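Sorry to interrupt, but I need a hand with the structure work. Could you add the entry underneath, on a fresh line?
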Amino acid sequence: MARSWRPGDPALEELVRAALVLCADHELNASAFATRVAASTGAGLHAAACAGLAALSGPQHGGATARAHALIQQALQQPRPAEYVRERLRRGDQLPGFGHPLYPEGDPRAALLLRMLGEVRPRPAGMARLQHLVAAANDGCGRPPSLDFALAAIGSLYGLDAGAALSLFAAGRMAGWLAHALEQQDGGSLIRPRANYAGARPQRQG
């Protein structure tokens, strides 16, 4: 992936390698669970992975990288990214790519990728604005960047389109999906949660 995006750039290769490892698995997230459910029915690996990919495409999962990419692009075009963030927060707008319910103190995956990106600094001016954006978000709402933001930041600073971040996410997670599917197939059990009806009971017809 790195060689097709930026041939002869070992720093990007290292970033991509780290991103793929960090994206590989993350407990029973929506896409991993969808993969396991499909595999539990006896579906093949291709079908199980497709179930994971379908779940990943949703805007609340891997699709969040596109919204984070749009936020970064808009912020980098502003003379003062921090003021842009403050204005968004004043309007009540969301900050895509910031905050993660499992990591109230900060997503460690994002922290590592952003630190690596800061050491490489493919676009020094862009990196400085990105850091102002992160600081402003932390000051304004107390939410540190998530993995979605870090993947979008890599794509943005290397001049890649919004699809690059999702491609990184999907390629890395594919290894995890296949591992989940193989483990589920080996267990041989069907995932079949039960649902209890909680609505009003129907009235008997006289």
In short: Residues 118 and 128 are 9 Å apart (CA to CA).
